[in-house]
User: What shape does this take?
Amino acid sequence: MSHPNGRRPATIEDVAREAGVSRAAVSKVLRNAYGVSEGMRTRVGAAIEHLNYRPRIAARAMRGSSFTLGIEIPDFANQFFTMVLAGATTALEGTDYQLIIAPAAGGPGREGYRAIEALADRQVDGVVAISPQVSTNWLERLAEHTPIVMLGRHDASEHYDTVVGDDSEGARLVMEHLLGLGHRRIAHLTRDEEVTAPGSGTPHSLRLETYIASMTESGNGGLVRVQRSGEGDVSAYESTLALLADDEPPTAIFAGHDELAMGALRAVAEVDPGISVAGYDNVRVASHPAVSLTSVDQAGVRMGERAIRLLLERIAGRSEPVHEVIEPSLVVRGSTRPPSAGPPGS
Amino acid sequence: MSHPNGRRPATIEDVAREAGVSRAAVSKVLRNAYGVSEGMRTRVGAAIEHLNYRPRIAARAMRGSSFTLGIEIPDFANQFFTMVLAGATTALEGTDYQLIIAPAAGGPGREGYRAIEALADRQVDGVVAISPQVSTNWLERLAEHTPIVMLGRHDASEHYDTVVGDDSEGARLVMEHLLGLGHRRIAHLTRDEEVTAPGSGTPHSLRLETYIASMTESGNGGLVRVQRSGEGDVSAYESTLALLADDEPPTAIFAGHDELAMGALRAVAEVDPGISVAGYDNVRVASHPAVSLTSVDQAGVRMGERAIRLLLERIAGRSEPVHEVIEPSLVVRGSTRPPSAGPPGS
DNA sequence: GGCACGCAATGAACCGTTTCATGCGGTTCG
DNA sequence: CGAACCGCATGAAACGGTTCATTGCGTGCC
Assistant: This one.
């Protein structure tokens, strides 16, 4: 079935026979290992060319390494993740490694696990993952056998590396900006409970906690308003409509990430374009003049690059964990402005 | 190196010993093959659980199949491709197959080849690819050993399947719409020569050819204006600025795809917001009210789904090729309107 | 001229799984 | 009661690479 028509592809054995040498010799030429003469190299090279030979990575992986890195991604629709991918891809350019990407799927709860396991089962030499939800214990166990770099986790494991943005600081920048503009009635649009469980240390939980802290500290504790939303901008749109149906709707919305912010913008455009919206991630469309979304930049591309570099270091032998924090910055654009003159709160 | 700390993971051998049975028996239980007693199943199951055993796919792939499908994608920044990915992912939900994604990279010219080869080398059971540029001969050769479905190719191979939008029809819809609105000075913003070589049958070449034909047929042959752009909306932005610097700038721009259209919109917003812009792919942001881009919908998500289904059929044994054409439709939005009253052409 | 030495090349073992040809004990049928 | 049969389990041979210990051979040294 694997070769419906045509004969089966050449193996290292065939190459060896054609070149009149041993399998071991061919293997050495392939990996251009030490101790192979010039004549051998050219003869074997010719045979490889002639037979159109390509080594099976699966066979190679059984003893040596697979020269394959895996990266797990929650969702392709969210541009932040594709920025990370872009960074990872460029970081691998020129190396012998190939990147394979596993989308998280497999029913709620199991989301990240399935994909990461699928990668590990395929004998990748290392894994980069964006999974705030998987348990630390489980990761620790996995890390015993496979080098791992986690993105967006604030826990400091002994056995895997992390690359993470300073989510508290990022949220603080947003709140400072909005409060500075004069907003008091600021709502926070965020994801479901499972991603924002207090104390879980997920990015979204930290942003949420910082939001509440900022509101409280600025004396607006009574105006705290948290609106939940599912993933995706459509869900965010609907959630925002619900939010805006309040008796006293907010004058500004701090969205947990840009995907949500895009949905919020859509709703705001319909209901009251005067309402300010700020996001998080500084996704590419945020800079488009028609959108012009104020957002926190946490350098997704650079995060992807760093993650891959850390992973390669690990594979090369490093064993002390590295936990890298990327400092966010706020990019102010047109979607935020002082509150429009409205009636003061009751 | 593969297990820096901790002992090595359990193998099928360990499970067999623990359960007091043969390796072959365990293997059968794993694949729940025919001919294994209830007692055996439970005993082996317990051992697997106890040892936390997971089969190595690499080893499995050496004899049987890898239960892994590969998909090659040119660019993550272009949302059309991530829509295809989303479709492919959902089509695989519930099956035993895992999707691995290889981003095209590896220097100009080699782009698609490298990634597709990397997938084939990893013994995937089948490949979906979006590579207008790779040669038909090369694909035919590859298809002898690996089932393949190509997206966006208009050639009708005997050995691989294709899923493709009707690009001529899509472009015709756009031109009909723009001409119907009263535009005559319509420019076409497209990619570099290599992707649009006349007669190459790539989607972009067909859109370009249809554009020229429509202009000619409508008596506007003298107003044909083709502007090249690199990949990405930034490049499109710059190219559009150049286009708008013409003595007689166009009143409407037909962009080869939405990524280009987004760049064009950016430039248009700065120079003359009255200029109409239409795109192709109906990417998600196109529907955002702030963008509101008229675009051709070719159902990227469904394309991804169909491609995976065709691939699974092939793997299951089908040998006659299938070539599926997806009919496009035009989604009219705010970015196109009648030409603003301007001075008539000289 | 003999000996130790270093480089090239080799044969065989190994990696972890699937598959195939057999073995084995117990029923069913003639 | 023996033969054919059946369901379950097994040992051994693949699969296609890598790695390790060993051999063969030409050199330099004393």
User: Anything to note?
Assistant: Chain A has three domains: 12-55, 68-165+300-326, 167-299. The CA atoms of residues 126 and 165 of chain A lie 22 Å apart. Residues 21-25, 28, 35-37, 40, 59, 61-64 of chain A lie near DNA strand C (CB under 10 Å from a C1'). Chain A touches chain B through 63 residues (CB under 8 Å).
